[in-house]
Amino acid sequence: MSKKRTTRGLRKRGETWHIQKTICGQLVCESTGTSDLTEAERYLALRMEEIRRTTLYGERKGHSLEEAAARYLMENAEQRGIARQGYALRPVVDWFGGEVRLSQLNGETLQPYVQARLAQVSTGTVVRELGALKAVLRKAASVWRDTNGVTWLERAPDMPSVKVIARKPRPITWQEQEVLFKQLPDYLACMALFAVNTGCRDQEICGLRWEWEHAMDDRSVFILPETITKNGEEKMVPLNRIAQSVVDAERGKSNEWVFTYRGHRIDRMNNRAWKIERAGVELSDVRVHDLRHTFAVRLRDAGLPMEDIQDLLGHKRRTVTHHYSRATLERLFHCVDLLTNVSNRPSAVLRRVYQAA
Questions:
Q1: Percent of the chain with pLDDT over 70
Q2: What range defines the domain where residue 128 resides?
Q3: What sign results for the dihedral spanned by CA atoms 263, 267, 272, 274?
């Protein structure tokens, strides 16, 4: 067997040179990423100088954006909404490349990214992405430290300013509902029908579990835990006749999730199918969240007081939080029942639901 080649702190494994050397008391074992000895020696010299500056003179190590993002997500894995933070960070890492140093990120270098993303996605999406990046950089500048006690970043840079223009709610009419829901694939049409009859958010519907269902006489109520609601408070979702029919049609498809597609949990309603089909009926301006607005507007038009609408939407109340008594549940059931009395003509989607049930 031939002996593996070594030279001046480098060891060749296969076709690639690897560093295997103790530098300032620190054992370094890593790939140089090259098969060329001269280039590998140059890389080793740079790493030796970097470690000496960091160890002996207290200079900062050049931590990468990908390294920082991974640490942030790992440390906050149990927090609510961390998955959305991960989704927001991914485009930033992809744009700059994982190896870009944290010290290279600032208002000026981020501006091209902002301009490019604004041409692709909404302003709100860009704001969320910058917010997630800002959280990572703040940790790097104030909490995370190397073995020499120096923070990963000297200070968190200022983020580029992005002006957010609030989009007005766009509730749909009964006629638009008929046209849009008929166009959607069955699984998405049922979720949309559930949304306009309960006012639930996208992620509340996608994450709805059977274990949260509670029977009350001849129908159900779902009690959503604080881990899934936006405001971190428990929320009650009473079902009217239409919402109950939607839920009953889904029974037996999954032991865990209420709404599924081919046996799997649906990540979001605002998917490719939603965007294509709404455009197909010239309703591209209708967002999934507008189904929640539709629910609220219809309750308001039915003459319900704002307090009842807030309870059904799961908004925080300034008054002391009350427990849901039977009288309260019956009152809220009556509120959502009003939506089934507005139109006596069953929709094509509802007929499909009844057939499925």
A1: 87
A2: 65-142
A3: positive
